[in-house]
């Protein structure tokens, strides 16, 4: 399998569950049936409406402000590592395009909170390592093992992964 272009969703899925990433990369996309995904899309569509998405092909950044600060909106009630990894990946993609990225901000409008995501040499190294890890998972011939079922709450892939049990 060729090394695929890696977008923010790939990174988010990798950090959440490598199996989810592997299935997504092979075209299994049950997100359209997920109430949580629909809710997240509604939050994204109704907050920060004056901004414009930045489409980088495989990745779509919510918006970038003057000074090259990446902004991402999440409907979650709790910040997570997967959100920060996704923003670091966006910073990496922009950096590769020659943009002098300053960092990122994750917006959680439901809880009215913001989290800063620094961009420096260490963050770049983490983003590159995460990207390589995502490519390695996608290249595997078989799906990674399931996570413990308790970690699958709210995942739109739950029915697929746990159907036989």
From TrEMBL:
Q: Where is the DUF83 domain?
A: 8-163
* Name by which UniProt lists this protein: CRISPR-associated protein Cas4
* Top-level lineage group: Bacteria
Organism source for this protein? Actinomadura rubrobrunea
**What Pfam families does this protein map onto?**
Cas_Cas4
Q: Which residues form a coiled coil?
A: none
Q: Transmembrane ranges? A: none
